[in-house]
Design brief:
Elements lengths: L3 E5 L3 E6 L6 E8 L6 E5 L4 E3 L5 E3 L5 E4 L2 E3 L3 H10 L4 E6 L11 H10 L1 E7 L2 E2 L5 E5 L2 E7 L4 E8 L4 E8 L2 H8 L5 E3 H9 L12 E4 L2 E2 L8 H14 L5 E2 L1 E6 L3 H15 L10
Parallel strand pairs: 4-9, 11-19, 14-20, 16-17
Antiparallel strand pairs: 1-10, 2-3, 3-9, 4-5, 6-7, 7-8, 12-13, 13-20, 14-15, 17-18
Helix pairs in contact: 1-2, 1-5, 5-6
Length: 281
């Protein structure tokens, strides 16, 4: 699957509301020819590739933009495409965000699995490294090690009652779909209430986020360590912005969108213009 490029057999349409804005949003994921990559096409006319150079915000979600036009909360959609092995697709977006669905990548991954993936003849670009590298921000860090397969080790550490959680696995489409895709976004009740008072998180509900109060999760968890699995989901969505399939091991310690963006930008500098272009198409 990772040796050759691939696209969808048919178009997929996902509609819903945005997690942060609460307004109606729509994304149509369409098949694309080889060497297209994952290309956003916004309803205002802006077109830009899903690569790290187009990240404009990482505070509460990964936001991409070009020439004043932006699309927010792209990480779950990109994680599904990346994790399921789709290398070429047009992403036609209406609205300011990608629909939140159930707060995970499950809706997108299930739709991709049901629609099917078509292999393409052109080789898929793979990114390898020759020596360890790392980025750090205080007590948060990402270490990238040479490896023959793509593997993620993640340590998440949050205030009680979440606590410390750990994930370690090779990432393949099967593992992603089974072990990562359904992990939901999360937050603390007091944070959600504070965001609501500020007019944020307008699309968040108990159906699309795991909410913790002082006693623990207010909904049944899908895994005991669902929180760190969601952090892995976010990392995969952000590492999709490499524009090439990783063949290395990622060790992430308490990292988030900001550090993921720094890491992918640094890695893309090594790719070079001969391998991938960031030219707007």
């Amino acid at each position: 699957m990772t040796r050759y490029q691939s696209t969808l057999r048919d178009a997929i349409v996902i509609e819903g509301v945005g997690l942060h804005t609460g307004v109606p949003c729509r994304v149509e994921i369409r098949p694309a020819p080889p060497d297209t990559g994952l290309l956003f096409r916004l309803d205002g006319g802006a077109r830009f590739p899903a690569t790290a150079e187009y990240v404009v915000e990482t505070a509460r979600a990964t936001v991409l933009g070009y020439d004043g036009a932006t699309v927010s909360t792209v990480e779950h959609l990109l994680a599904a495409l990346f994790g399921m092995g789709v290398s070429n697709a047009y992403l036609d977006v209406s609205g300011p965000e990608i629909p939140v669905a159930d707060g995970s990548a499950k809706t997108f991954a299930d739709a991709i699995a049901q629609t099917g993936i078509t292999p393409q003849r052109e080789p898929r670009e793979r990114f390898t490294i020759a020596e360890p590298t790392f980025v750090r921000d205080g007590d948060r860090a990402i270490v990238i090690l040479p490896a023959s397969k793509f593997r993620v080790k993640f340590v998440a550490d949050f205030a009680p009652p979440v606590g410390t959680q750990y994930f370690d696995s090779e990432i393949t489409p099967e593992i992603f779909h089974r072990e990562v895709a359904a992990a939901r976004t999360f937050g603390y009740l007091h944070e959600v209430e504070a965001l609501r008072r500020r007019g944020l998180a307008r699309g968040g509900t108990m159906e699309n986020a795991v909410v913790y109060d002082a006693g623990g999760p207010m909904q049944p968890l899908r895994w005991p360590n669902e929180i760190v699995r969601h952090k892995v989901l976010d990392l995969l969505g952000d590492f999709a912005l490499l524009g090439a399939f990783p063949r290395f091991e990622v060790i992430a310690i308490k990292s988030g969108h900001k550090l993921h963006c720094i890491a992918t930008r640094e890695l893309r500098k090594r790719i070079g213009s001969a391998l991938l272009s960031t030219k707007v198409r």
